[in-house]
């Protein structure tokens, strides 16, 4: 797999809805797993609800993942390692199928979304320090344009725009929703 450049040529990010917004530099490299669970009733996406005390994105819904560490051979290795650490999911249950576009956050991360298919049965044992909850959302729900919202809020005195996909009591927004929009557009256009 190709390495993660310091600033990818083709990228998505918080700037998609906020032209002129620049991230905090230098960008920190990260990877997440976009886990598609192959259920009999259709594909579902596994997401985590982060605990409220974490330094980055506390209390938010996210994909499992984190910073690329020096010992990680690739973004795929990072995504699988972080997924195991956060959710207890054994990497042997994940069949990697590709990457989405790198996603650059306002907070200074360039995130590589790695897509993998998970076939049950598997065991989830979340790390209670990092993960308050692991849950699934039907992929069909996330791909339905009626569930895509473009929202705005004030951050540090500036109005910022972001995507959101509320699902029951879970508010999926920001970078996670932006990466899901990338998945939606990729699948829509293929």
Task: Describe this entry's structure for a reader.
By secondary structure, this protein is an alpha+beta fold. The chain has one domain: Nucleoside Triphosphate Pyrophosphohydrolase, CATH 3.90.79.10. It is built from three helices and eleven strands; from the N terminus they run βββββαββββαββα. Strands 1, 2, 3, 4, 5, 6, 7, 8 and 9 form a nine-stranded mixed beta sheet that branches. A hairpin with a 2-residue loop joins strand 2 and strand 3. The longest helix is centred in the C-terminal third of the chain and has 16 residues. The chain is globular. It starts with 11 loop residues before the first strand and ends with a helix.
Descriptive terms for the model:
190 residues, 11 strands, 36% strand, single chain, disordered N terminus, two-stranded antiparallel ribbon, globular, Nucleoside Triphosphate Pyrophosphohydrolase, alpha+beta
**Radius of gyration, taken over Cα atoms and rounded to an integer in Å:** 16 Å
Report the span from N to C terminus.
22 Å
CATH superfamily: Nucleoside Triphosphate Pyrophosphohydrolase
Count of helical stretches: 3
Task: Kindly report the CATH topology.
Answer: Nucleoside Triphosphate Pyrophosphohydrolase
The fraction of residues in strands falls at 35-45%
What coarse outline follows from CA principal-axis ratios? Answer: globular
Spell out the helices and strands N to C.
Answer: EEEEEHEEEEHEEH
| Helical amount | 10-25%
CATH architectural group: Alpha-Beta Complex
- How many strands, what sense, and barrel or not for the largest sheet? 9 strands, mixed
